[in-house]
UniProtKB/TrEMBL annotation:
GO MF assignments: orotidine-5'-phosphate decarboxylase activity
Signal peptide positions on this chain: none
Gene: pyrF
Protein name: Orotidine 5'-phosphate decarboxylase
EC number(s) from the headed UniProt entry: 4.1.1.23
Organism phylogeny: Bacteria, Pseudomonadati, Pseudomonadota, Gammaproteobacteria, Chromatiales
Organism: Halothiobacillus neapolitanus (strain ATCC 23641 / DSM 15147 / CIP 104769 / NCIMB 8539 / c2)
Amino acid sequence: MSETAPQPQLYVALDFADPKLVEPFVDQLNPGECGLKVGKELFTRGGPDLVRRLVQQGFPVFLDLKFHDIPHTVEQACKAACDLGVRLVNVHAMGGRAMMAAARRAVSESSGSPALIAVTVLTSMNQSALAEVGVTRPLAEQVSMLARLAQEEGLDGVVCSALEAHAMRRIFTQPVPAIVTPGIRPSGAALDDQSRVMTPSEAIFAGATSLVVGRPITRAPNPAGVVSDILASIASSD
Ligand SMILES: O=c1ccn([C@@H]2O[C@H](COP(=O)(O)O)[C@@H](O)[C@H]2O)c(=O)[nH]1
């Protein structure tokens, strides 16, 4: 198992269509309080330089590109991700054992110490969406099966919904696993396209180690205020 840097309890998902919006937004946040998640939309528009700038500003960065390809390609992509100095990288567990082993090799050999985690079942999916892609076993079992595969290949944790966080703690038994949960909604917030959701305090209580929150923060009139509220609500659930 690799020695990884500590993860923040909150990653703010920077799902902006225009990279120019990132700087003024990020200026409202404190790198000592939260990390930033760069996903497919912003990375495709802003590129690696944007990621490097966020790292230089002192933010823990989760590069959420969910690699899913043949093992060699994922190994090389993981090397490139590690070179950016990010705190957290991920692959899709559905890429299989050999692909996760290749990712593990790449990240372990990198000079930084990002955590490497595997996406189990996307938080936007429910049981019927899973059935439509041919998976008929109960969703929670599918999450656990993929998590066990990731654990056997030495990954540091998973992306799952907070509904599955407790089960993940039994699979990843290291002192500080990375149980990273999107699908977080403060009570009363719109669900948008998420299916498997919990509030921030429920998620931490259930065993999540890092929450990923996007639209409830980025679309709020006072994003820094929502960040403070979330941090205050999870401080009492620790
Ligand atoms: O299963 C997953 C994996 C990744 N995500 C990402 O998290 C954020 C969630 O954003 P919200 O606006 O809070 O819904 C987004 O960037 C997704 O790509 C996920 O939601 N579920």
